[in-house]
Design brief:
Elements: E1 6-10, H1 17-28, E2 31-34, H2 35-49, H3 56-65, E3 68-71, E4 74-77, E5 80-81, H4 83-86, H5 89-98, H6 102-113, E6 121-125, H7 128-132, E7 138-143, H8 146-159, H9 166-182, E8 195-198, H10 204-219
Parallel strand pairs: 1-6, 1-7, 2-6, 7-8
Antiparallel strand pairs: 3-4, 4-5
Helix pairs in contact: 1-10, 2-5, 3-6, 5-9, 8-9
The chain binds cytidine-5'-diphosphate (2 copies).
């Protein structure tokens, strides 16, 4: 029996991973995993329970106990809609703090692998190709220059009615990327077997077409 194929898309914050990965999945008719949403949900669960972000043990327990569901375009945490809390920059920052804890990452490992189902999975995050799905058939490191990423995130936040100042968005992204890249476990980096794609001057559609082209090259006999 052939293993379920995986395409891994990793990269820094607001590079377009989610947008591009979801469209690639749709084009192929595959499942999609937004692994960042799982880390964000741990942060939301911690906030709901009033937990300190310094308490690795309690955070890992909360993470193991939480029920999550992606349904009707929404994220449900323990049966309550968490979609709005999920996308704020405050949640992104808290997620990157809880994501530095090895015990939290271990608990999420099994959950992430559970998304791998036929006919295939497109997964985006920081360590999809390096840790979670090392056997992925195609690995992409998707990035863009910091000012471009800040522009994209700022636009996204404004469209959701979340007011943010441009200099704050730049600073949040920079600090979060630095924390993600320097942590000892599963750091964000361009690992050697990932194809590099800089989308600074590229539309999301062009990035999707590039990745689909790479996939076709690989999957042809
Ligand atoms: O998942 P990640 O944080 O990497 O990025 P995202 O949430 O997909 O956000 C990227 C934003 O930039 C979205 O609003 C996209 O429409 C836009 N965008 C893109 O994803 N890729 C491009 N090449 C150009 C714009
Ligand atoms: O959308 P954006 O790129 O801003 O963030 P995200 O992908 O939703 O991830 C939020 C945070 O979760 C990141 O800053 C990482 O610290 C963490 N994360 C991770 O450690 N490993 C992953 N595979 C995905 C996210």
């Amino acid at each position: 029996e052939a293993p379920v194929p995986v395409i891994a898309i990793d990269g820094p914050s607001a590079s377009g991973k989610g947008t591009v990965a979801e469209r690639v999945a749709r084009e192929l008719g595959w499942h999609y995993l937004d692994s960042g949403a799982l880390y964000r949900l741990v942060a939301v669960a911690a906030a709901r329970a009033g937990l300190s972000l310094d308490d690795e043990g309690r955070l890992a327990e909360t993470c193991a106990a939480m029920t999550i569901e992606f349904r009707d375009g929404k994220a449900w945490l323990d049966g309550i809609d968490a979609s709005e809390d999920l996308r704020s920059e405050a949640t992104g920052i808290a997620a990157s703090k809880v994501a530095a804890y090895p015990r939290v990452r271990t608990v999420l490992l099994t959950r992430q692998r559970g998304f791998r189902r036929l006919p295939g999975l497109v997964a985006d995050g920081r360590d999809m190709g390096s840790v979670v799905f090392p056997e992925a058939r195609l690995k992409v490191f998707l990035t863009a220059a910091l000012p471009v990423r800040a522009e994209r995130r700022h636009k996204q936040l404004m469209e959701k009615g979340m007011y943010a100042k441009m200099p704050d968005v730049v600073e949040d992204l920079r600090r979060r990327d630095e924390r993600d890249a320097t942590r000892p476990v599963a750091p964000l980096r361009h690992y050697s077997d990932a194809l590099f794609l800089d989308t600074s001057g590229m539309t999301a559609d062009a990035a999707v077409a590039t990745i689909l082209g790479w996939w076709r090259e690989r999957s042809e006999p």
